[in-house]
Every structure is written in structure tokens, then in C-alpha cells.
Amino acid sequence: MEKDIGEIQKNEETKIIIRIDDFGGQPGLTIREFVKSERYTGFTKAGVRIKAEKFEDFKKIINSIDPNDLSTQKSEKQQDTQNIEERIDNDESGIDEQGLM
Predict the structure, then answer these.
(1) Per-residue pLDDT reduced to its tens digit, 32-71
(2) How many CB atoms sit inside 10 A of residue 60's CB?
(3) What is the pLDDT of residue 18?
(4) What is the dihedral of CA 4, 67, 75, 46, to 10 degrees?
(5) Separation CA 38–CA 34 (nearest Å)
(6) At a CB cut-off of 8 Å and minimum separation 6, what does 47 contact?
(7) What does the pLDDT read at residue 55?
(8) What pLDDT does residue 70 have?
(9) Which of 15, 30, 71, 82 lies at 20 to 30 Å from 89 by C-alpha?
(10) Percent of the chain's residues with pLDDT above 90
(11) If you write DSSP's letter for every residue of the chain in order, what string do you get?
């Protein structure tokens, strides 16, 4: 039994497939990369399989993620970049952006 649940485009050639399947007689949730390129088309080894009996644990963990935490990480990187740019702009070495004094 295979039932595709959804997919997320990772890049031009790769997407992440989420499906319910029965591997080796044991049902579970599989999350794997699927590549479509000139060289290869099919699933890669990259991915994870959650056995049916562990699905509720997995679901609790995923549901415990605060979406604000994900956007905070992005904001921290943007802040770091801004701090670097400010230090460059405030450089008092006497050399301008073209390298002239």
C-alpha cells in the first residue's frame, strides 16, 4: 500500500515526497527526496522512515515547533548581515569604497 500525502519542491531537480507505505510488511511514514534529472530519475537514499507505532511521537514533536522560532532564525541571520554592513560603513580607516584615501 502506498499513498502519497504531499510534496515540497526543494530545488529545480529535487522534491521531498511524503507518503504512507508498507515497507517489509510494516506500515509507516516515509519522507524521501525524489530526483528528476538527465542522469537519474527516482528516489535517493536521503530521507527518513517513521514506523507507524512511532508516528504519534513524531507528530507531537512536529506540532511542538513554534513557527515564530523558524522566522527568528532568519531574522538573526539578517541582523548579523546588517551588523557587518554597518561595521564596514563605519570604517574610519580613511579609505573610501574605491580604495582611495
Answers:
(1) 999 999 999 999 888 999 999 999 999 999 999 998 888 8
(2) 9
(3) 95
(4) -30
(5) 13
(6) 16, 30, 31, 32, 33
(7) 95
(8) 84
(9) 71
(10) 55
(11) -EEEEEEEE-SSSEEEEEEEEEETTEEEEEEEEEEESSS-EEEEEEEEEEEGGGHHHHHHHHHT--HHHHHHHHHHHHHHHHHHHHHHHT--SS--TTS--
Show the cell assigned to 90: 563605519
**Are the beta carbons of 16 and 35 closer than 8 angstroms?**
no
Domains of the chain in sequence order: 2-65 (2.30.31.10)
Which of 58, 46, 54, 53 has the alpha carbon at shortest distance from 13? Answer: 46
Contact 46, 32 (CB under 8 A): yes
pLDDT of residue 1: 81
Query: What's the pLDDT tens digit per position in 4-28?
Result: 999 999 999 999 999 999 988 899 9
